[in-house]
Amino acid sequence: MEVHxxxxxxxxxxxxxAAEFPLGARExxxxxxLEAELQLARLTVRREVPVPIIYRDMPLGHDARGxxxxxxxxxxxxxxxxxxQGARLAPKDFQQLYRYMxxxxxxxxxxxxxxxxxxxxxxxxxxxxxxxxxxxxxxLSSECAATPVVTHQEYTVTARP
Length: 161
Description:
Elements (H helix, E strand, L loop, with lengths): L4 H16 L6 H14 L3 E8 L2 E2 L2 E2 L6 E9 L2 E10 L4 H15 L4 E10 L2 E9 L7 E7 L17
Parallel strand pairs: 5-6
Antiparallel strand pairs: 1-4, 2-3, 4-5, 6-7, 7-8
Helix pairs in contact: 1-2
């Protein structure tokens, strides 16, 4: 899978933030630091963006929405960044990213998802791209302080029409 150049800029920003917090930090702290780092890279960043849930072309109420931690917009490319803190990622973390990506593909053409773990011993950055399907997620970066932990090799999810 080809990786969008902005994704590589985001990976570098994640690496710089992880270097400042080598033993992990609260999610809100790394979120603020990553937002600042992406702005320094001159990217358009939004924080805590509501995800509209659409059912049969009807938006559901406010209680049904999630929030994307950070969003980077570059032309027609829309990057969803979901940030996690802890020991390792779980399948539910990937599923959350996929749900957000599926909702966004209904309104945008070029949706990219990135799941970032600012862990206690390492940092992981996962990348997925959506079109008619969400292509296989792949590990773009893993920096390990102690023991390397890779939780998933790949996922394939088909977006609903």
